[in-house]
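quick one, 228 residues, struct below
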Amino acid sequence: MQATSPTAPPPGAVIFDMDGVIVDSEPLHEQAFREIFHELGYGDAHGMDFTAYYGRSDRAFWQDFVARHSPPQPLEELLALKQSRLIQILRREQPVFHGLPELLARLAPAFPLAIASGSNHPVIDEVLAMRQLRRFFPVVVSVQDVGRNKPEPDVFLRAASLLGVAPAACWVVEDSSAGIEAGRRAGMRVIAITNTLARERLAHAHHVVTTYEEVAALLLASTQPPPP
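---
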């Protein structure tokens, strides 16, 4: 009787960060914050290091701003002001990365895909309306759904749970140091793309790439059965 070879394990899932991976939005977040600072009378004397918050939530940013300046506006008002301004900018700029829709079209037949973002759902919805991107993502997780943002692993673990895929079988595509740390804490394999930060600041990822073609090559190679 001929022995049968064991069935290859499924290739898993791919979980995408949004800001800096799906859309070129990190500069737009900064633009929105700066516009609000000027309108509130702080100008450039806000004292905030925008790069320190890449991959983190607006709430974390504003909490630190409030601790520094004690503004008269409550935290929730500041959050709403910035979110509204960002949505206006996103609608105008439509900053989907070149090559990103094509990457998703190549991956979707091979993997279930998810978004795990530090942005709130209204911002995510605005982005996924661009180029009909929502059709690629059966699962979308916001920091609003979990309570703790990156570098904690909660958004990635929630996405894996909703996809029905074990964390160890998931890949994460990230652009920030906090996101890489979150993916690794979740027990996932992390691909970092140099859209936002220099390669050396992403070195703790499992793979560091500069193009979406490299992302596709890594992920699609993982679906191939091992040689006999």
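Residues 1-9 have pLDDT under 50 and may be disordered.
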